[in-house]
């Protein structure tokens, strides 16, 4: 014999449904439309995240490339620094040579001056002596022995004059050579100084340009990272709002679905029975950027949960966001799991039959409304339960 809910309860449920499904104050769309609009907003935020993430990745790649260029430039700087040290050593050697050359030049000039004075004095002496010519010396000689002495004297005077002249000539040549050496050293010093300054300026400018570009890229990356964080925060809030709206819709659906708390056993086309009799409100698959590893079935709190098939309870207890969680091993690879239960109706290691009550609907763990999160797993990996129901 069919049982009917009291009219007051039915009217109350209907009124609650009308309240939830109706537009909220200040919102013109009904709940279903607001859910779709919220989903669209979440997807839009995800697209923004994707674009920003790709942009940031590109900036990171460019920054990394600049890091490589900067490292290469630093290596060049190291090599040039070694060259600079070598050239500085050469400059010091050149300066030492210059000092030596200047000293030699000064001494040569001094010797030239002394030679010129000596030559001048010798010329004066010759002038004053009024040296006789060879014929006079021969005619005035007192015999052959005296003639020999006078001839030797004249030759000595001539040799001395020649030596003085040769000495002065050598000093002039040495002075000219020293001047050329000094000019060459001065030119070499100038060339080295110019080369050193040009290399230093070039590498310093290249390093500054790289550092400036890298700083600009880092600033752009930081700005986009800040924007990405804001978009993620906004998406997280939107997802929370969406979950609340879906939970509200699930509560309405659960309230409207029938007079018996558990409902009749529901058979599908697969080997498993439905653990609860209610509408599917969230399918298996990717949801909000991660895998939703089961299906969500909307039913009121306290509704009994039935084992989808016979087997052994291999897991029973609190498991993070799943809340109160039960898993039943059916075959060597197939198992089913039931999350968010308010309480358990079986125990760890127990053998259960298909259709046996193993727990009750609730909202434990991470959820926004009473429902059953139902999973099928093959070899421990989640698969779509709709292929088995």
Entry keywords:
389 residues; Helix Hairpins; Glucose Permease (Domain IIA); 2 domains; ten-stranded antiparallel sheet; 4 helices; 14 strands; rod-shaped
Q: What can you see in these coordinates?
A:
The protein is 60% helix and 16% strand. The chain is an alpha+beta fold and 389 residues long. The protein folds into 2 domains: 20-256, Helix Hairpins; 259-389, Glucose Permease (Domain IIA) (Distorted Sandwich), CATH 2.70.70. The chain starts with 6 loop residues before the first helix and ends in a 6-residue tail after the last strand.
Summed up, what is this model?
The chain has 389 residues and is α+β, with helices and mostly antiparallel strands. It has helices at residues 7-21, 31-129, 134-139, 143-256; strands spanning 266-267, 273-274, 280-282, 285-287, 290-292, 295-297, 304-306, 311-318, 324-329, 334-344, 351-352, 357-361, 372-378, 381-383.
CATH topology of the largest domain: Helix Hairpins
CATH architecture of the largest domain: Orthogonal Bundle
- What low-confidence regions span 5 or more consecutive residues with pLDDT below 50? 1-28, 256-260
Tell me the fraction of residues in β-strands, as a range: 15-25%
Total of DSSP H or I helical runs spanning 4+ residues = 4
What would you call the shape? rod-shaped
Helix content: 55-70%
Main sheet overview: 10 strands, antiparallel
CATH class category of the largest domain: Mainly Alpha
Radius of gyration: 54 Å
- The overall number of domains is 2
Query: What's the quaternary structure here?
Result: single chain
* N-end to C-end Cα span: 29 Å
Written as H for each helix and E for each strand, in order along the chain, the element string is HHHHEEEEEEEEEEEEEE
Could you tell me the mean pLDDT? 76
For the secondary structure, the number of strands is 14
Structural class computed from helices and strand pairing:
alpha+beta
């Amino acid at each position: 014999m069919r049982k009917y809910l009291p009219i007051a309860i039915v009217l109350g449920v209907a009124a609650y449904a009308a309240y939830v499904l109706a537009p909220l104050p200040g919102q013109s769309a009904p709940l279903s439309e607001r859910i779709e609009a919220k989903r669209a907003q979440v997807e839009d935020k995800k697209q923004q995240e994707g674009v920003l993430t790709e942009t940031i990745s590109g900036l990171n790649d460019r920054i990394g490339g600049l890091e490589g260029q900067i490292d290469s430039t630093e290596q060049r700087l190291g090599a040039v620094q070694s060259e600079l040290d070598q050239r500085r050593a050469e400059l010091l050697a050149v300066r030492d040579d210059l000092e030596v050359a200047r000293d030699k030049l000064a001494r040569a000039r001094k010797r030239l001056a002394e030679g010129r004075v000596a030559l001048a004095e010798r010329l004066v002496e010759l002038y004053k002596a009024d040296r006789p010519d060879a014929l006079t010396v021969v005619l005035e000689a007192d015999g052959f022995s005296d003639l020999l002495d006078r001839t030797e004297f004249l030759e000595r005077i001539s040799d001395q004059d020649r030596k003085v002249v040769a000495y002065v000539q050598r000093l002039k040549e040495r002075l000219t050579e020293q001047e050329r050496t000094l000019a060459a050293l001065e030119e070499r010093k100038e060339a080295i100084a110019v080369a050193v300054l040009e290399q230093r300026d070039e590498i310093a400018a290249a390093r500054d340009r790289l550092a400036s570009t890298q700083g600009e890229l880092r600033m752009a990356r930081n700005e986009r990272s800040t924007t990405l964080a804001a978009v993620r925060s906004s998406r997280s809030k939107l997802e929370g709002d969406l979950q609340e709206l879906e939970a509200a819709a699930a509560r309405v659906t659960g309230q409207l679905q029938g007079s018996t708390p558990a409902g009749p056993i529901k058979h599908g086309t697969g080997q498993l029975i439905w653990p609860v009799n209610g509408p599917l409100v969230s399918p298996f698959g990717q949801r909000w950027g991660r895998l939703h590893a089961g299906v969500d079935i909307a039913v009121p709190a306290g509704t009994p949960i039935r084992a989808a098939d016979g087997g052994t309870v291999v897991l029973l207890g609190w498991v993070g966001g799943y809340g109160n969680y039960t898993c039943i091993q059916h075959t060597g690879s197939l198992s089913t799991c039931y999350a968010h239960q308010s309480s358990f109706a079986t125990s760890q290691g127990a053998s259960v039959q298909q259709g046996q009550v193993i727990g009750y609907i609730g909202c434990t763990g991470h959820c926004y409304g009473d429902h059953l999160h139902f999973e099928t797993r093959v070899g421990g990996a989640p698969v779509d339960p709709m292929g088995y129901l």
